[in-house]
Predict the structure.
Amino acid sequence: MLLTNFILFQMAWLACVAGAAKGLPWLGVTVTIVVLGWHLFKAKRAMTELLLIVAALLIGAGFDQTMLSMKWVEYQQHGWSTSLVPVWILALWGSFASTLNLSLAWMQQRYMISVLFGAAGGPLAYLGAEKIGAVSLDGNTSYIALAVGWAVITPLLLHLASHLNGFKVERA
């Protein structure tokens, strides 16, 4: 289950980023809907997982909207207004949320590791997206903002996930 979750997240990430780079912003959304459908189907408590996905999507949308508004990142192929965070970025946040109680669950309660993971992993994901052609970053300021943002968001989302875990059986 953990390996499948990891692979499905990677597929969703690639579909979102490559789709945006190739002018197909809804491709990643479509793949992500399938991934999240599988995720929710496998969850013991799907509504709890859905709440986590919505929370992560809102937090991520706020962060990426700030990055866009500050002109620290420029997104390709929004799928709607260029003044709003792209649809495919929202899909990425949803698919990232699907990893929090499965393939990334080992980081729950390991706050320093999750801070370091976020500080490194967030900027690396955007660098990968930039290399593929889905985003443009505004130099060092962008990377610093991404590192700080992800260093805060990653442990926050993992903390939320530990309380909103639709894969853990509740004890009566």
In short: The longest strand covers residues 73-75. Helices lie at 2-21, 25-42, 46-69, 87-97, 111-132, 139-163. The beta strands are 73-75, 135-137.
